Amino acid sequence: MASHRLRLTPSADTAVSDLRGRPAADWSRLEPELKAQGCRAAGYRLLAADGSWSAYCCKHLYGKWRVISTFEPGIVWVIAVAEHDCAELYKRLSHELGIAGVGRGREQKPACCGEAGWPTTGTTRAGRAITSVPHSPLRR
Amino acid sequence: MAATLPKPRQLQRIAALAHLDAEELRIEIENEQATINVASDLPALTLAEFSARLDSLARLTDRLLQTLDVPIGITVEQAAERLDVTTPTVRKWLKEGLLRRVEGRKPIEVDPRSLIELQRVLATVRVSFPARQWSKALSAYLHDRDLQGQAWFVKGRDEFERGEFVER
């Protein structure tokens, strides 16, 4: 039984409608999971520009397809669904920093919900704007 | 296009003004420290008083930054020393966009604000992940920065901020 409402931004909705093949099949599985489990099904939490938690999570579908989401009480917001071609990024990193070789992807994937549950960055859009992140996600 | 630099005489005046502002800032901070040191004997600051003092420091800092608003950055060597990395690494990070360069400056100079931003991230990453581990955290940071800078991500986020949605 769904415990969360699912809202897609118009661009995410269009992207989902255009999915074909395995990414579409992955989305078909993910959609009920998001409704039932909320952030527990939403992949890993992204880092913000200052190194603290971002308000967004990332779930991988087949290939390079990514589902970006955020949450309000009882509501799952799917912000974007798109391909993230990070091969070039990792290629550069691999060459220049000697880290994260091509195809290895992002090594650290902290749970979307976080240790204290979702959200750690405010329950609403307004709240997120004024609530400081109480801890660094990189500090464990 | 090359940035127009102040003449040496103008730079001297700018440096003198910046020195003046820095001195004032230091005195303000010393005063605040003295206040904190005797705080146990005084009633606690109200939020409004504390806010007013922070405003005063912010005004001084703004003035200092205005004085120093000349298109001169940090040398690659200075940046490397500050970030505790090698100069080739600084040059690589400039290519990556992790650091910004000051336009029109040769040899290459690093934008001070981008250096401070990166320094903060590196400080966090290094404390949490000693030795080589911190570079993995940096990799995650770079990945997420890249992801969240994608046009499709920004578009979706803007739609979300405007409250536009399709219920499913």
What this model shows, in words?
The complex is a heterodimer of chains A (140) and B (168). With 140 residues, chain A is an alpha+beta fold. Chain A has helices at residues 10-18, 21-37, 87-97, 125-130; strands at residues 5-8, 44-47, 53-60, 65-72, 75-83. Chain A contains 4 helices and 5 strands; from the N terminus they run E-H-H-E-E-E-E-H-H. In chain A, strands 1-5-4-3-2 form a 5-stranded mixed sheet. Chain A is globular, with a radius of gyration of 16 Å. The termini of chain A are far apart. Chain B is mostly helical and 168 residues long. Helices cover 67% and strands 4% of the residues of chain B. Chain B contains 7 helices and 3 strands; from the N terminus they run H-H-E-H-H-E-H-H-H-E. A two-stranded antiparallel sheet of chain B has the order 1-2. Chain B is extended, with a radius of gyration of 21 Å. Chain B starts with 7 loop residues before the first helix and ends with a strand. Chain A binds chain B through residues 5-13, 15, 31, 46-51, 54, 56, 58, 66, 68, 70, 77, 79-80, 82, 84, 86, 89-90, 92-93, 96-100, 105-108, 125, 136, 138-140, and chain B through 89, 92, 95-96, 117, 120-121, 124-125, 127-129, 135-148, 150, 152-153, 155-157, 159-161, 163-168. Strand 1 of chain A pairs antiparallel with strand 3 of chain B, so a sheet runs across the interface.
